[in-house]
Design goal:
By secondary structure, the chain is α/β, with parallel strands linked by helices. The protein has eight helices and six strands. The mean pLDDT is 92. It binds adenosine-5'-triphosphate.
């Protein structure tokens, strides 16, 4: 029997935007994942700066953004740990929760492919889950061939098998924060409830 697939989408979600929910939904469909769990990080070990909004606000914004989608969930697991949070530990925790009849699929945007080599225990992570790289339509798919010398052929083949094409959604949290600070229009980038929450709590000013 085929194993259940549980997808995890990690990130800082500072704030969560319609790009995140659109690609999560599309990727889940393509890999037949029964759910996508958003896993906000306390901070990204590879991003120089801390998130602008605090943990609780980022968590609430995700809860608002995913409320209408019953196959989406959010976990505060990484937020409750001392920083930084490593993906391998998170994958192992969810694998233990869901048991051996489930495959954990960690979704990562293809823009982060070159950073993968710097991730903590990346080889163990590739072995421990399906590391699925989502590349945007209209862009070149990622090519892991250059990593064969360090990660070995089997790992590279596994990565290549788990490449997912997702729709192009040209939105980033960075652009949203800049627009918010400049008083620009954001209706097409954020869930209306998230925009409301940001305004009420005077975030990213
Ligand atoms: P920032 O602009 O602050 O770097 P971001 O918008 O890239 O933020 P993250 O929280 O870093 O958001 O992203 C979480 C995950 O979602 C990452 O794997 C990232 O590559 C992916 N992602 C973010 N925005 C998009 C998008 N528009 N389309 C596809 N994937 C995305």
């Amino acid at each position: 029997m085929a194993k259940r697939k549980i997808a995890l989408l990690g990130g800082t979600f500072d704030p969560v935007h319609l790009g995140h929910t659109a690609v999560a939904s599309d990727a889940a469909g393509r890999i037949a994942a029964e759910k996508v769990i958003f896993v906000p990080a306390k901070r990204s070990p590879l991003k120089g700066s801390l998130p602008k909004a605090d943990d609780e606000h980022r968590l609430v914004m995700i809860a608002i953004a995913i409320a209408e989608n019953s196959s989406f969930d959010v976990s505060d697991y990484e937020l409750r740990k001392p920083a930084p949070s490593y993906t391998l530990q998170t994958v192992r925790k969810f694998q233990a929760d869901y048991g051996s009849d489930a495959v954990i699929c960690w979704l990562v945007g293809a823009d982060g492919v070159n950073d993968l080599q710097h991730w903590f225990a990346i080889e163990e992570l590739i072995d421990a889950c399906n590391l699925c790289t989502m590349y945007r339509a209209g862009c070149e798919p990622p090519d892991f061939a250059g990593f064969e010398g360090i990660w070995g052929r089997q790992r590279v083949q596994k990565l290549q098998r788990n490449i997912i094409k997702t729709p192009l959604v040209d939105i980033s949290s960075t652009e949203i924060r800049e627009r918010l600070a400049a008083g620009g229009d954001l209706a097409d980038m954020l869930h209306p409830g998230v925009l409301d929450y940001i305004r009420k709590n005077k975030l990213y000013l």
